[in-house]
Amino acid sequence: MKASVTLMSLLAALAPGSVAVAQPYETPPPAGAPRPAVIPAPFVQTLGNGLRVIVVERKGLPLVTAELVIRSGTEADPAALSGLADLTATLLTKGTARRTAPQIADAAEALGGQLESGAGWHRSFVSMTVTRPQLAAALDLIADVTMHPRFAAAELERARRLAIDGLNVSLAQPGTLAHLAAVRAAFGASPYGHSAQGTPASLARTRRADVVTLHTRLYRPDNAALIFAGDIDPKDAVALAQAAFGRWTRPATALPATSVSAAQPTARSPLAIAMAGAGQAGVAMAMPTIARAAPDYYAGQVANTILGSGYSSRLNQEIRIRRGLSYGVQSQLDARRAGGTFSVSSQTKNASAPEVVAVMLDEVARMGTAPPDADELAARKLALIGGFSRSLETTEDLAGRLAALEANGVDLAELGRVIGKMDAVTASDVQAFANAHWRAGDLRIVVAGDAPQFADGLRKAYPALLVIPQTEVDLDAPGLTKATAK
């Protein structure tokens, strides 16, 4: 019998009276060439009030996802009120002038769907997926919560309390705290430096008037798009959009500009956050990176996949598989409308943190000196392309992809070109991207954990290491410490 066998052949060999059958090949056959995504060109029409209607028709199932996208989100949070956009979007579905929160939930359930709302960088949204006959009623519900939210004091307090409880739990995790602190250290006072979900302190400062003000400023038809994905033709979609949103009045005042100031990284790196008794250390590093519309965006995505996305990535191979220092490590290239964040993060034993920092930096630097060989490049591109293809399987996924392009100011037709652009990336493109954008010295490093177990090790490489007690960390302050908070 050959050494390479499948599970089925092993089971057959174990069965009484069975005869094991050798497999016809020692290794799996090569992967086929990527198939292009077959996506109709998006139809776009703007209503008289400025609302953009976007339609991608997908036949097969009588389902339609309707997603209303406001082209403003977390970047519009005031400096002292991080998390305001997220809290505002959450409260949309908690009561309107016509319906209470339970009535909204009951109405959505009666339509066979779930009304969802939220916010992120450069977008806030309300969405729902229903069968085609229920679409008009679903749009009425989306329009009601978007245009007429009550922002009741009791609902605000309930949402605030839930959000603060969740943040207190997540910020007790070394990995989460290290990542948020590294992003703040990389951007300083720039809007991209704050947490999208806010902090316990920023949410405690938020008042109803703040929520109402943000909603009044940014939730307006000339700052919005209504996306349809599913079994609906453009003509019907426009008629339904007009019926549901035609009375949404565009304000006489111009849409307020929300600029994202340049990153103002902290001078000190690395930083250590002392979390007494922490069982593990969170290791994170971050730096500003490219915008979504950058010409080398796809080279960056492939480079990131090679470096730290997935089990076979270089970081995971070196840190988890070869050295056994962590259960996992990942890098992320989060490109947005006005720039973005590149980050690397992991959790490890406290004593291993200095070694993990060194390996992360070495692997980032190696991306510019050791381009991927043909097999590594092909495998990682196929993984990236496969993930993208799976992200288009449902109407919700398709609408979400369109919403991301709309929010970041990218041509919607780009969706049909993604696989071809990913497949066209070469090893030299990856190396050029790494050399242009991943300078290890620009990464801001944060290690959070039981500092006595790793601080001396870090000081051997970084004699000026600053150790901050967990109680003194302020994620709302550009300098990360309460002493610098305004």
Mind explaining what this structure looks like?
With 486 residues, this protein is α+β, with helices and mostly antiparallel strands. The chain folds into three domains: 1-27, no CATH class; 43-245, Cytochrome Bc1 Complex, Chain A, domain 1; 271-484, Metalloenzyme, LuxS/M16 peptidase-like (Cytochrome Bc1 Complex, Chain A, domain 1, 2-Layer Sandwich), CATH 3.30.830. It is built from 17 helices and twelve strands. The protein has helices spanning 7-14, 84-91, 101-110, 135-147, 153-170, 174-187, 200-205, 208-218, 234-245, 297-308, 314-322, 353-369, 374-390, 395-407, 418-423, 427-437, 455-461; strands at residues 43-46, 52-57, 63-70, 116-120, 123-131, 224-230, 271-274, 281-289, 329-336, 339-348, 444-449, 466-469. The strands form two sheets. A six-stranded mixed β-sheet has the order 1-2-6-3-5-4, sandwiched between helices. The protein has a six-stranded mixed β-sheet with strand order 9-10-8-11-7-12, with helices on both faces. Strand 9 (329-336) and strand 10 form a beta hairpin. Helix 10 crosses helix 16. The longest helix is centred in the N-terminal third of the chain and has 18 residues, at 153-170. The protein is globular, with a radius of gyration of 25 Å.
